[in-house]
Amino acid sequence: MAHKKLTAAEEKRLADAFVAQALAMGLKGNKKLPKDIKAQVRTRVLSAIEDERRVTQAQEARRQEYETATHKPPVSINTHWYY
Q: For residue range 21-50, what is the model confidence (pLDDT) as tens digits?
């Protein structure tokens, strides 16, 4: 997975996932998670973040496409009628 800078909210989400996993394992206080467990949590959270980024980009592209598309039929000038 390529390294991408996380936003503050994404960093908090990752930290919260580490805390939740530690509590689920019964680790209390300042005990550290094992490296393999930490890697699993990181992979799971970062893949979810990447999926959300892809969805957001796709929605933004669809919105841009919708906004730039013309929905009005071309106006034809009728030159046969005189007012």
A: 999 999 887 788 899 999 999 999 999 999
> Cα separations (Å) of 28 from 21, 32, 42, 83?
11, 9, 20, 87
pLDDT, tens only, 5-21: 999 999 999 999 999 99
Give the C-alpha separation, 35 to 59, whole Å.
Answer: 36
**CA dist., res. 46 & res. 11, Å (int):** 10
| Count of beta carbons in the 10 Å neighbourhood of residue 14 | 17
Residues 31, 23: Cα–Cα separation, whole Å? 10
AA letter at 20: A
Query: pTM of this prediction?
Result: 0.69
